[in-house]
Amino acid sequence: IKWLAESKKLTMGTSAGVYMLYGSETNLVVTPFRFTINRESSFSATDTPPVVVSNALMYAQIGGKDVQQLLFEGQQGQWFNSKISIKGYDIIKASQISKMVWQERPNNVIWLMMNDGRLLSLSYDRQTSFQAWSEHAIAGTNAKVVDIEMIATATHDQIWLKVERTINGSTATYMETIARFPTEGALSRNNYVFLDSSITTTQSSGVVSGLSHLVGESVGVYYDGMQHVNKTVSGSGTITLDNTSGSDVVVGLSYNGEIETLEPTAPENQYSYSKQVKNISILIEDSLGIEVEYEDLSEEILFRTSGDLMGKQIDLFSGKRKLSLSGMGWDEFGIKVISNGPFPMQIN
Question: Residue 255: beta bridge partners?
Fold first, then answer.
């Protein structure tokens, strides 16, 4: 199928539809003298190579703004098309899909690189009919993804990105990989990575080196499992920490992750009414560094208590936090939950 997508003669990128190449029968090997080409779908395709997910073929439709799923149903013995990009159209429509990559482990994710340098993802599980779209902000000035690839390892599927950004007034290109997520249990608490273009190292004298790729940049610092104030990288590629009480350091470019709530579901059989959001209840798992934005207000969720020593690591929080939204007006529903530090934020 991939050969069809990339071939000069037999291409998926036609307005006529999608074609499959078989042997003279579907269970025979393809040879130069024994092959059959069947038109399996009338939905068009671009020349972007497709990905195979859960025995289904995912491909970008002509125009690059829609993703079609081509699925073989064994009982009917036919291929069926369905559009799986409807719920993500608001973040796709500004550009076009230029590459797709499938990551099966540890989480089922289809990564989509857009031709404007943005990175999107579709968390996808066909068996449970689960689909969730998101856009991944790449930290840095004029940052954009120019290539993406998956490399399978014995333990997980690595996602590698080729990223361009402006560093110290010039365009720099780096190869970066997405780090392991805390729920995988592969990283210690002190080595969690929630910073872009980062390094993980240790220090004993307060000076962190090895940052020549971020000269002149203001960088976030994750220091012994907690947040340090931002620092600016010197011309020699170093930063100096405010104290030396710890050892493990992760340094990189900061970004915020955010979730924005939708409008609450309307009451049954009610068509004309006003409503007001009074409070928000957040079920948090193993997270720190969270704030809530609504209207023009911002409120940080506090996890450190008066009983915790300053300058010492506190445990990741799991539980429920409830906030009163006293400033919310009528028929206003835009509430954002934001990760405001180099910490994991898992909202259940």
Answer: none
Q: How far apart are CA 332 and CA 264, in angstroms?
A: 10
Give the other-Cβ count within 10 Å of 326's Cβ: 11
Q: How far does Cα 184 stand from its chain's mean position?
A: 16
Instruction: Please tell me the distance from the alpha carbon of residue 278 to that of residue 269, in angstroms, as a whole number.
Output: 22
Measured between alpha carbons, how far is 264 from 274 in angstroms, rounded to an integer? 12
What DSSP line would sit under 67-99, residue for residue?
Answer: EEEEEEETTTTEEEEEE--GGGHHHHTTS-EEE
Q: pLDDT, tens digit, for every residue of 38-90?
A: 777 777 888 899 999 877 889 999 899 999 988 877 665 667 788 889 989 99
Distance CA 98, CA 60 (A): 9
- CA-CA distance, 110 to 112, in Å (whole number)? 7
pTM given for the model = 0.86
- The whole-angstrom separation of Cα 7 and Cα 13 is 10
CA distance 99 to 121: 12
Tell me how far apart the alpha carbons of residues 255 and 163 are, in angstroms, rounded to a whole number.
15
